[in-house]
Write a structure and sequence with these properties.
The complex is a heterodimer. By secondary structure, chain A is of the alpha+beta class. Chain A has a domain at 9-83 and 229-270: Ubiquitin-like (UB roll) (Roll), CATH 3.10.20. Chain A has helices at 25-31, 81-97, 112-120, 155-162, 199-203, 224-227, 230-237, 264-270; strands spanning 9-12, 15-18, 55-58, 61-64, 75-77, 143-145, 169-172, 179-182, 209-211. In chain A, strand 3 and strand 4 form a beta hairpin. Chain A is globular and about 55 Å long. Chain B has six domains: 15-82; 94-186, Glutaredoxin, CATH 3.40.30.10; 194-407, NADH-ubiquinone oxidoreductase 51kDa subunit (Rossmann fold), CATH 3.40.50; 420-491, Ubiquitin-like (UB roll) (Roll); 495-578, de novo design (two linked rop proteins) (Up-down Bundle), CATH 1.20.1440.230; 591-618, no CATH class. Chain B contains 26 helices and 15 strands. In chain B, helix 1 runs parallel beside helix 3 (59-69), helix 8 (207-215) runs parallel beside helix 12 (278-292) and helix 19 (514-531) packs antiparallel against helix 20 (537-553). The longest helix of chain B has 18 residues, at 514-531. The chains are: A alpha+beta, B alpha/beta. The A-B interface holds A 48-53, 55, 62, 67, 69, 86, 89-90, 93-94, 96-97, 127-128, 130, 152, 161, 167-178, 181-187 and B 59-60, 62-63, 72-75, 77-78, 80-82, 88, 347, 364, 369, 371, 506-515, 517-522, 525-526, 545, 548-549, 552-555, 589-590.
């Protein structure tokens, strides 16, 4: 369109993707309807690129698509066999690092790790399990912390400080001993100011932060990712500043424009 | 089996040394906080000092500090939990940590550690029941030229032998206050073996600054660029370009930071530079500050070099008194710089410049996302240059003698000289300064190495070269190095060396990104499996697969280079791996008999009938 101001684009797997200045590759790709597998990236929070599942090749160099600022004429490869293989290994690493027993997990079917694993075709853990000893924290009357399933995505850390204004969660330790801690001298969740209505509670992509007395209310088979794969839902949920009259504020644009979900987890997300 | 109970003969800690009442404890913390102006960017320093009296950070101390610096408590606890020198659990009144570089082991550190554990009746990694002493291992502490070495409450004691171990055990058992220990124990030698331009430089304090002022900021920077001075820490970035970008980036303040967090195992040249040439280093920083327009500087000194802290503070004070730091330096209106000394607290990853800046800001030492570059958004998001100690020394000499003089030695791509930290199997370990481009062979001859099997150039994250490569050159275009040069003779098992390095990376991974956090531990476990004779071809393939994953997707250089020692030795010394393989097919890592160890411990049984292996063999 010669008369209109040209929207800059980059190339993703051979397709031109338009972007707005300031957008990262993942943001622009999702907005334009192209899925790049990701885990710790969440459209409502500033990306930090720790899980590395969204690793792409940009102009020949690997980078995390969630933190990589989109640049005009950049050539990005994502849906390539070697990159998907890399992503499968990263997901397997997260599975063996913790203690994940999908069949008995309350989050099964609503779990982002599980969903990304299915979507990428991860069929076995392949790597050796670590079987870490991670006691649960059941001190809070309404919430349970099951650290066995933590993938250290820091979404609860970010949500609690950025949205809830509380900083209930933080990280301590380093290396394979890195772990989630709570903001209390006793180290117990009951002694923090967390509330069941906090964003930090609903944002957990895996089964670490769970509401008590609501387990298995929705049967497995009727849960969020039982309906459709995460690659479809991520596109549906992506904020689309390009197609809207006004740019959506990231903090308010979660699943806002998306089709209503049939299951209870959608409700849970907004509680 | 080592006894796990405390022996009655060990005297209890005197009553005046028992845990002080809480009010005293908090009053002491408040005094520390006040001294630091409750500045949250000083958090690592505050935590270090707060830990001093009791050897650990009790929960209420963390709470007190968090409140004062106005941070969530969990954030402060997370910072303390990141650094290996900070303890969130009670530790002994004497905290002994044996340096555990491969060179320390080659010098017999393990037998010495056992001897000390036995003599003090304490298990490695534990605290004695009376709270007197805890003994553990720590990564390389930069004393490889005079190992084995250890740290007592952060203070280094090198050149360990059985006599020294027994003396230390005696002092602990007495117990003698650390300040009253014989000073000869703490003497650190410089071991300068081959001085060249930097190590033999002599000039009066202020000369470099005068030379820089005479040139003027712009021309001085051009001279640095023309010299092609490349970063001496190992990455080899062009110093002039870094400084130019910092100078050109907008910001209310600019910072010049000296990276003295020399953590790469086998490296100790910055220790010697700061002990003998602190003035040259600070003159280089001051010259850089003049060129980029900075008024504030930091020296980030690794926590293990505590013995350099007092001398450096004295040097800084002397320079302030001589108007070589402070306002209107040497009477030049508006030329202002103050340099602050900051201590690290035990984290190899903080040698990565952006992780170092996070630590300087009082945070967990996690490398940052790039872009933005540090030259644009560094310390407190303001333009910052971070350079190695040796780089500042090189810059100082360029100011004195000019770029042509500097380029006169070295190769066309790698100008100047380079300090090497030589350790391992050689007659004369220590510091060697050579023009860049020197061959591995030349260094081996000079340091008195014989029957050399391999050299680890640049530390575990560098390159392992075998005998047929000793003609290769130490230069940025061939064997890049931050200075480590560890020599292994024919008696050494290269597999065990690589396994040791795998443990090192797993211990030092910051844990931010999945591939490095999980991958380095998987590699460690894989090497341990091979070591135990349970490996197969499958495991060798796995190492190569993990190498691809870590190289492609790790957040920083630590993860990207964590597989180097394994891949290098697999390529060059494959038989060292293959003779350990039980079969060329798959062998499971899971050890059923090992899994029953806890049950055996609980039932107090260790007889053959309680073991599966024995039953099978029988």
């Amino acid at each position: 369109m010669p008369d209109e101001k040209q929207v800059p684009t980059f190339q993703l797997d051979g397709v031109d993707v338009p972007f707005q200045p300031g957008q990262t590759v993942v943001q622009a790709a999702l907005a334009a309807g192209h899925y790049i597998p990701h885990l710790c990236y969440h459209p409502e929070f500033k990306p930090h690129g720790s899980c590395k599942v969204c690793t792409v090749r940009a102009n020949g160099w690997t980078a995390t698509a969630c933190t990589l600022p989109a640049k005009a004429r950049m050539v990005v490869e994502s849906d390539k066999e070697d990159l998907n293989d890399l992503r499968r290994t990263l997901v397997q690493m997260l599975f063996v690092e913790g203690n994940h027993f999908c069949p008995s997990c309350e989050k099964s079917g609503n779990c982002v790790l599980q969903a990304v694993g299915y979507d990428l075709g991860v069929t076995s853990p392949d790597l050796d399990y670590f079987f870490p000893d991670r006691p649960v924290d059941a001190s809070h009357p309404d919430l349970l912390l099951d650290f066995n399933r933590c993938i250290l995505c820091e979404l609860c850390v970010r949500a609690s400080s950025e949205v809830d204004g509380k900083s209930v969660f933080a990280l301590s330790g380093r290396g394979i001993r890195k772990h989630l801690i709570v903001n209390a001298e006793s180290g117990r969740l009951a002694d923090t100011d967390i509330s069941v209505r906090d964003k930090a509670v609903s944002v957990c992509p895996v089964g670490v932060i769970l509401r008590k007395r609501s387990g298995f209310m929705v049967p497995i088979g009727k849960r969020r990712f039982d309906a459709s794969p995460i690659s479809d839902q991520a596109l549906r949920d992506a904020p689309r500043p390009l197609t809207r009259a006004t740019e959506a504020k990231p903090a308010e644009a979660p699943a806002a424009g998306s089709a209503p979900r049939a299951d209870a987890s959608a409700k849970q997300d907004r509680a | 089996m080592r006894p796990v109970f405390a022996r009655a003969a060990i005297p209890r800690v005197p009553p005046n040394d028992v845990m002080p009442p809480d009010a005293d404890r908090l009053a002491r913390v408040d005094a520390i906080l006040q001294r630091h102006g409750a500045d949250r960017t000083h958090l690592v320093e505050i935590l270090r000092e707060a830990q001093e009296p009791e050897g650990w950070l009790p929960p209420e101390v963390i709470t007190r500090i968090a409140r004062a610096v106005d941070l969530p408590r969990a954030r402060v606890e997370g910072v303390a939990g990141f650094y290996s020198m900070l303890h969130l659990e009670p530790a002994g009144r004497y905290r002994i940590r044996f340096a555990d570089n491969i060179t320390d082991r080659m010098q017999g550190s393990e037998a010495l550690l056992d001897r000390m554990c036995e003599s003090l009746w304490v298990e490695q990694g534990k605290t004695s029941e009376d709270g007197l002493v805890s003994i553990a291992r720590t990564s390389c502490i930069g004393m490889c030229d005079q190992g084995p070495a250890l740290l007592v409450n952060g203070r280094a004691i090198p050149r360990l032998d059985t006599a020294r171990i027994d003396r230390i055990a005696e002092l602990v058992r007495a117990p003698t206050a650390l300040d009253a220990w014989p000073p000869d124990l703490f003497v650190v030698e410089d071991n300068v073996r081959r001085p060249d331009r930097i190590l033999s430089a002599a000039f009066a304090p202020g000369e470099v600054i005068r030379a820089t002022l005479a040139r003027g900021a712009g021309p001085a920077l051009e001279e640095i660029k023309r010299s092609n001075l490349l970063g001496r820490g190992g990455a080899g970035f062009t110093t002039g370009i870094k400084w130019q970008t910092t100078r050109d980036s907008p910001g209310e303040e600019r910072y010049v930071v000296c990276n003295a967090d020399e953590g790469e195992p086998g490296t100790f040249k910055d220790r010697v530079l700061l002990a003998r040439h602190a003035d040259m280093t600070i003159e280089g920083m001051t010259a850089a500050a003049y060129m980029i327009g900075s008024r504030r500087g930091f020296i980030y000194l690794r926590g293990e070099y505590l013995h350099l802290r007092e001398p450096l503070l004295e040097t800084l004070a002397r320079r302030r008194a001589a108007n070589l730091l402070g306002k209107d330096i040497l009477g030049t209106p508006g030329f202002e710089l103050d340099v602050e000394l900051r201590m690290g607290a035990g984290a190899y990853v903080c040698g990565e410049a952006t992780a170092l800046l996070e630590s300087l800001e009082g945070k967990r030492g996690i490398p940052r996302n790039k872009p933005p570059r540090m030259a644009e958004k560094g310390f407190l998001k303001l333009p910052t240059t971070v350079n190695n100690v040796e780089t500042f020394c090189g810059a100082a000499l360029i100011m004195l003698h000019g770029a042509d003089w500097f380029r006169a030695v070295g190769t066309s791509k790698s100008s100047g000289t380079k300090l090497l930290s030589v350790s391992g199997d050689c007659a004369r370990p220590g510091i060697y300064e050579y023009p860049l481009g020197v061959t591995v062979q030349q260094v081996l001859e000079d340091c008195g190495a014989e029957r050399t099997q391999a050299v680890q150039v640049g530390g575990p994250s560098g390159t392992c070269v075998s005998a047929n490569e000793f003609r290769r050159r130490l230069a940025f275009e061939d064997l890049e190095t931050g200075g480590a040069f560890m020599v292994f003779d024919e008696s050494r098992d290269l597999f065990e060396i690589a396994r040791h390095f795998a443990h090192f990376f797993a211990h030092e991974s910051c844990g931010f990104c999945t591939p490095c956090r999980v991958g380095t531990s998987l590699l460690r476990n894989c090497m341990d499996k091979l070591h135990e004779g349970k490996g197969s071809q499958h495991d060798l393939d796995r190492i190569l697969r993990l190498n691809r994953v870590l190289k492609a997707s790790s957040h920083c250089g630590l993860g990207q280079s964590a597989c180097n020692p394994l891949v290098d030795t697999l390529k060059r010394f494959r038989p060292a791996y293959e003779r350990r393989l039980q079969s060329f097919e798959f062998e499971p890592a899971f050890d059923l008999d090992g899994a029953l160890a806890r049950a055996r411990a609980m039932t107090g049984r260790d007889d053959p009938g309680a073991h599966l292996r024995e039953t099978e063999n029988g």
